[in-house]
């Protein structure tokens, strides 16, 4: 018998090992086995058992069988295979992304004493002698034990010398890294289980009153909670460990050590405490009607239209039919609000799965899903890899979101599209939901591939927020010229006043009117760029604070200042490893590269001309938070971005504080945009719309519309008293008109002809191939070599090779090719075949062997 085994490496094909006779009746497809490849051991998954001996090589034997039962289902194996084929990666890369770390195990180095060397260690130095003596006694030592023995982490040179002298040799061993959580529980001895015997014990108690109090506390806790842990008993009774030990010594109580869950679950229950509105009920029925004919349905509902309640009803139906449901969200930040709603309705049926949980917690959740104990899973994109026993429904909320697409490393899958394939393996239904659907999804819906259901009104017929565009060119600050500052708080669709007006004390405007007040105390730099708050937005914030309402301010840049420029020669501090400017973070007083993570000290002298005066350009969330603190000193302000929100519960804590109105103004990046529901927010400010609109990519208009419409939807969700102010210099950009009208259909109708004219999705499929190497001339040559074949095969569909906007990241130079292929399965399959073939040919040339070739299917 032979086994095709998937190991977590980027191998072009899966290797085959032979199955020793003693395991041939026990091994199953989906089990983990220990295999060795080039002197390293791996825990692989058996994909296929067969009797076809490979003809090209003599297969090695499997080292060990690690599982009695499969850890993954056949449906998961099919998903891995599909992702590897569709997204041009290996099944090993999919396995590495899909399995919890503990399933993959880790290889541990073990030193084994060579008996033939004998016990004469006179030729060894001091460190070698110490290790050799220990090996003589123990025969085997782990690498970690050698490090402890020598009190040093740097033991590799010593081990290398000992191997060369034949004192020992090395072997690899797989070690299990998961350990179940254990806890001590207090149990009443069986002798006192009968009421008569217990009553006799209590009635005849003569001494040790503290022990009696402890016993009574135990009996009370046991009656109310069922199980009593040792820490809970001592905490709630106020007793000491010695008093508990006394009861154990007397044989009245005993201590049991049990395995417990790391994640606490509520009691299982289904409790739906709301009725759908007529509009929601109509949408719910229409979704079910669509599901009779199609696997996928798109629910297009405006922000705050009550989509989540429809999702909950769909989940309820799945559970009552005995099936499981997967609720996908693009961001971990969104799970905190949704999980509380789902737990209120489904209790312990609900499990959460995302990267903020520890590996132990993720493994335990994995096993509960696999056994069917958890019926509803809420998770980010990686949740599609979970081993569902009987999946009946997948909900992809905010289906348009770019976070569903994995970027680095492979597999570069799109969770929404992979979920549709995964659901097909179970005959499950997929419900996509969004107020601003992806162009491809909406196109599939209107052409009949997906069902389409629309919710046009907000819940309770609350009106959509009023949107105003503020022309930031009018309110831009100027250097001192002896003339009063000219500003206007008029919006873009109103003619600006022609006469100069006195600037009121709007914080930053008064502070930066004069040159001598623009220096940053930390960097010595000035800012003559866009204002943070226009007078109109400042006034609205004051009104909202005065009315005891909350405000969300959105800026899609973190840090303090995205870049600074030398005032004399225009030099901009850049990362040494990447072709990007450095972002100043005031909290750390450092310059950060947001691509490679390198941190630099602040620059005070221009490297080009020696001048020490810098101009800060634009602003990030950190600077906005600081500015708001100065302008609105009484307001409670918080920031929500990747720098300020860290740790497993940080998102949830911040969101709960905002829900409980402990925060007045929340400043954030995209985290504040997506699906959050805050009752008392009546004002949203988009501080720099130009930074969203003007991107050199075909989805720029779509992304800008989605971001601005989504963040606008956070305002006025309860009473409709919502306002949105968008600060922009390019006020004539069409996307601002679509957002002001809250009109997705208008956006879609205007966007579609451009996509068709220039050959972009939904009319084509895009495959982008990126080349990376440390030498620019090598990466240029590799891309050119690769392009020759593609031009022959696809002369009308190839774009490039060309440098991307950022041509160097982490000291790797980049070149790109793009294939814009017709939506024809045969052409796309042939293109993927050519890409794989050309990659192999490229790497067979010694000059290009170290060039990384990265295909990205359906690239965003």
Helix/strand-derived category reads alpha/beta
Query: In DSSP terms, counting alpha (H) and pi (I) runs of 4 or more, how many helices?
Result: 26
Q: How much helicity do the residues have?
A: 25-40%
- Report the count of strand segments: 34
The best one-word shape is globular
Largest sheet: 7 strands, parallel
Task: Classify the beta-strand content into a percent band.
Answer: 15-25%
How would you describe what is shown here?
- With 860 residues, the protein is an alpha/beta fold.
- The chain has 26 helices and 34 strands.
Descriptive terms for the model:
860 residues, alpha/beta, seven-stranded parallel beta sheet, six-stranded parallel beta sheet, 26 helices, 34 strands, 33% helix, globular
Q: How are the SSEs ordered, and which strands pair?
A:
Blueprint: E1 2-6, E2 15-18, E3 32-37, E4 40-50, E5 64-65, H1 74-86, H2 91-98, H3 101-104, E6 106-113, H4 126-138, E7 140-142, H5 143-150, H6 156-164, E8 168-175, E9 181-188, H7 195-203, H8 209-225, H9 230-237, H10 241-249, E10 253-260, H11 278-293, E11 296-301, H12 307-320, E12 324-328, H13 335-346, E13 350-353, H14 359-370, E14 376-379, E15 391-397, H15 415-426, E16 429-434, H16 439-446, E17 451-455, E18 466-471, H17 508-511, E19 525-526, H18 535-546, E20 550-554, E21 563-566, E22 583-585, E23 590-592, E24 599-600, E25 614-617, H19 621-631, E26 637-640, H20 650-659, E27 665-668, E28 681-686, H21 690-693, H22 700-712, E29 723-728, H23 734-741, H24 744-758, E30 764-773, H25 776-793, E31 798-802, E32 808-809, E33 812-822, H26 825-844, E34 852-857
Parallel strand pairs: 11-16, 11-17, 12-14, 12-15, 13-14, 15-16, 18-29, 19-25, 20-27, 20-28, 26-27, 28-29
Antiparallel strand pairs: 1-2, 1-4, 3-4, 3-5, 6-7, 6-8, 9-10, 21-25, 22-23, 23-24, 30-33, 30-34, 31-33, 32-33
